[in-house]
Amino acid sequence: MAQIKQIFDQNFLEYASYVIKDRAIPDIQDGLKPVQRRILYTLYRMDDGTTHKVAAVVGQTMFLHPHGDASIYEALVNLANKDLFIEKQGNFGNIFTGDSAAAARYIECALLPFAKEILFHPETMQFVPSYDGKFQEPVVLPVKIPLALILGAEGIAVGMSTRILPHNFVEVVDAVRKALRGEAFALYPDFPTGGLVDVSDYKDGLGKVVSRAKLDVVDNKRIVVRELAFGTTCESLISSIEDATRKGKLKVGAINDYTAGEVEIEIELPRGVHAQDVIPALYAFTKCEVAHHVHCLLIVDRKPKVMAISEVIHYHAKHLQELLKRELLVEQSALLAKIHARTLERIFIEEKVYQGLEHLKSAKAIDEHIRSALQPFAGVEFHDPLTDEDIERLLKLPIRRISLFDIDKNKKELAQMQKRLKEISKALGDLVSYALLYLDNLLVAESARFARKSEITDIDRVDYRQAALRNLKLRYDEKEGYLGTEITTGELIGECSEYDRVFYVGGDTIYRVIEMPKKLFIGKKALYVALFEKKILSEAIFNIVYKHKESGYPYLKRFKLNQWMLGKNYGPLLPSQGQLMHFFIGEYWQMIPTYKESNLLKEEEIFSTEQYLIKSSSTQGVRLKAKAIAKIKLKEKKI
């Protein structure tokens, strides 16, 4: 049994680790999930200047991705609809209407030149074997911008999840620029569907935002939705409005969807209903307003880590410098090798080292001849050691190349390469300035494509209880003991909505606060029933007049209610030895008792409630008179 448990634990840990690191959570370095990375790398390998059938791209990606074509196709369509890296041809669906893309065999795609510039640099990429060991795939792509923030991400792993909202490309790049310069910055989400967004509780990517559709009021009788809240479509929004209408939460006459290239949903209002009455309900009960909680979880050094948005930006400010440094070193090494080869080639031709080689009988003699001829130039014309590869390359020079060799052209090319080497050396000495220059050029080339779509504003949240239609009638039937909105007999307590709550004190003096009931038995002859209003209830003064069961003495209990939880019983308010005489609310009342042994000639005795202290609901009350009473009459005082 212990062995089975050990095997299960080990397998579960391996599975959980795989799902977290290699499937659901993006890596901070390139901001991509594995399926996205494999799709982009496949498009890069297939790139030939033309578009390719999505079905072909999916098929090629399956050599690297072990989870089937459906997941690849869906991920490719979603990635293409970000309008960032992939050129689309055909029907890729509509993010506004929610329409799905055409089948993979009908649509085509290709990488944009921008993607090849931002995402790939084969000389610096690290590769590992694919899942079956037959192919090579990149560990991460050398992405030079915080792609996780630009694309956004959602993923559910084992015991954890990530929710990163999309941000504006220009604003993200500008934030990296400010981080490189050591300046403060603030970064907020930008949604492809536009709309309004309240970022007051964003908390640097660790809080939440509220997204609203943009509504346009026409003639106070029509409301037109021009932009959608993030995470919704025209279909889901219309469905939510219809559902709220059926439930009586708002009144709508008709809904017309004219959405094509831009969102246009017309909401017609019935007679007697105006836009200012409906808009709060649209925000409260439909998907015109959506709250998004954020959880920025990324893979950092092969481990999941929750990060603030500013941390991601600062990480990429350093990561960009590292990527650019690698590229510069690769270019520097290639230039030095090229200069070395061109210099040897020039000496080999100018000094006619090739002459006399035809008389030599062996490869060793040829090698010694070339080395001997080039030796005087070592350390002067070239500095790297002469290798066997260098000699082999010189021997392969064709006669035509030798006879047409242009000395001046060779010198110009060498001068250009030397100039570039100096530029690389300068850039390596000041990587921050070089990174800033790179980002500046990037913004100049691409900023026109990425205008902000969502408008940042302060949103006053609508209380759905206040926005709800008060079209229900709450009644209490004292004879039958039922309370609710579906009762047609008894006393009308008030007009209400389904979100209101009810406060009542039963005949047993136990009190409760409950949700609005349709039909609930609370007992006959309840002492008090009212719609619950917290402020009014907390300020109300309750009074109970009772007599002691044994002595018959009258008592007054005055109190305020300062605690209640929904659905919980409190009380009883009447002491165990008390016999209830009166239950009433108010500050100023007169109590006129009639005693069992009454002197008819004596004037009636009057007690005023304001003369007694207000205490908690658990007190016994104060005795009015040490004399048994037969009854007591109440009279409200006029102040």
TrEMBL record:
Example of a GO MF term: ATP binding
One GO CC term, this protein: cytoplasm
Biological process according to GO: DNA topological change
Limits of the Topo IIA-type catalytic domain: 25-472
Top-level taxon: Bacteria
Coiled-coil stretches noted in the UniProt entry, renumbered to this chain: none
Keyword Acetylation: no
Entry-linked InterPro entries: Topo_IIA-like_dom_sf (IPR013760), Topo_IIA_A/C_ab (IPR013758), Topo_IIA_A_a_sf (IPR013757), Topo_IIA_dom_A (IPR002205), Type_II_DNA_Topoisomerases (IPR050220)
Keyword Isomerase: yes
Annotated catalysed reactions: ATP-dependent breakage, passage and rejoining of double-stranded DNA
Key words of the record: DNA-binding, Isomerase, Topoisomerase
Active site, per annotation: 106 (o-(5'-phospho-dna)-tyrosine intermediate)
Similarity-based family: Belongs to the type II topoisomerase GyrA/ParC subunit family.
Name used for this protein in its record: DNA topoisomerase IV subunit A
Species, as recorded: Entomospira culicis
